[in-house]
Amino acid sequence: MEAPPPFASSSSSSLFSLRNKPLSSPTITHFGNTKPSKSFSVRASSSRDSVVTLLDYGAGNVRSVRNAIRFLGFEIKDVQTPQDILNASRLVFPGVGAFAAAMEVLSKTGMDEALCSYIDKDRPFLGICLGLQLLFESSEENGPVKGLGLIPGTVGRFDSSNGFRVPHIGWNALQITEDSGILDDVGNHHVYFVHSYRAMPSDDNNEWISSTCDYGDKFIASIRRGNVHAVQFHPEKSGDVGLSILGRFLNPKSNMAKKPGEGKASKLAKRVIACLDVRTNDKGDLVVTKGDQYDVREHTKENEVRNLGKPVDLAGQYYKDGADEVSFLNITGFRDFPLGDLPMLQVLRYTSENVFVPLTVGGGIRDFTDSTGRYYSSLEVASEYFRSGADKISIGSDAVYAAEEYLKTGVKTGKTSLEQISRVYGNQAVVVSIDPRRVYVKDPNDVQLKTIRVSSPGSNGEEYAWYQCTVNGGREGRPIGAYELAKAVEELGAGEILLNCIDCDGQGKGFDVDLIKLISDAVSIPVIASSGAGAPEHFSEVFYKTNASAALAAGIFHRKEVPIQSVKEHLLKEGIEVRI
Description:
- The chain has 580 residues and is α/β, with parallel strands linked by helices.
- The protein folds into 2 domains: 49-250, Class I glutamine amidotransferase (GATase) domain (Rossmann fold), CATH 3.40.50.880; 271-574, Aldolase class I (TIM Barrel), CATH 3.20.20.
- Helices cover 26% and strands 24% of the residues.
- The chain is built from 17 helices and 29 strands.
- Strand 28 (527-529), helix 15 and strand 29 form a beta-alpha-beta unit.
- Helix 13 (482-492) runs parallel beside helix 14 (513-522) and helix 15 packs across helix 17 (564-573).
- The longest helix has 13 residues, at 397-409.
């Protein structure tokens, strides 16, 4: 990943004491079933064999790795001293944060020498993401910065000039060598990547390479030498395939109770994302709801909040159904809650125990003061979401205000929520959610904002429109267009854009292809199409006609009108790569 940890200025002795513990873990009763239903059986045969040593220096979401290890039946011992590394029977290093910051921590604590000694002795090791990159000689990220120097080569940034979007986010295919070890039976399956930097194959490091991946160029997806393994992708976020990889590392002698089925992966897949709008109903229970042009109440005498299920249960079902990501949108303010008691944090904690695909959460990512007078910065709010299991956070209204100020002054202050969170956790962890509505005009010269000729004329025959951004759940229009906002937030540090459309929301007539093409052509970061899906054909249309990297739906999945698997089967028939 590409950002310093939130405690980069702390003393090195305190870094390892930060165990990513949530501020509080209250009990809950209304979010859904929390019992795991395990597909794998790789439990160790003795108490010592059941312990996995985890090198976690406190940055980002490592909860998912912890949950995956525990899901597979193993206990975790956290590294506190270099001796803990040397004493480990197996070591997992899920590197998160920036290359330079990680190396600084490892060097100051003596962990670097312990790691090198451990790996040199061919002890069981699994590095994940940055845990792979640190094994190389150096990185260009904010550098050059020296690495552990165990593998020849330099880690460099993807080249976005050739049309490939950076960060590399999504499910991509592996090209596996003959002796891949933990990757056996994984060929032809997609695994989940999220990164902007990568190591390249060379004659000098070829003997280490166990798989590669194509994204503009062929880069190193995994390495293996003896008992030493490292992967650029995230097995803890790669579904059953990822769990099988972790299981083979944790217990190489075990026969997996469930192996991945046949796959057809050949390149980066288009993602199908399930979105859950979550809010409290009038009884105080947290429920999944769905709006009609952002109105979430039933048109009945009671005017109650539309209730489509419990968030943890639905998220678990969508994971089983094949959703590539699950996105939670918190549409209740929760302004009176202390940060550690926010209901959405509890939803994330329970969901991440059994859902092993990326989780995004949005809504309420801003500065706020609770009922006790305690002030929380947006960075603190985001940090707690990450510690509770989120892989990405989505910023809405705050990003609009930041973009407006940036376009007015041309100055990046570094103080906005978007800039702060992106700097600390990396732009791949920050999604900006844009909520625009069409504003028709007779002449594109009538406004100074970007206008386009639209395929559906206005009520008075207008052929042009611009897309006005809104805040506060679509209730307030702002003097900035979706095009201008998208360009600005990319410069401010967004790694992905979630593109909604108020006009299409809940209508089931298809995505706003005009809008999505406009934005996906304008930026070099991935764009997620949202709002309006009503049939599988709407997904293929948006992928054929625009450069969207993913498409999101909510109501059609909640109401079981269109199963996720039906969408993917349709896309496959249309020749569009998806993860099966």
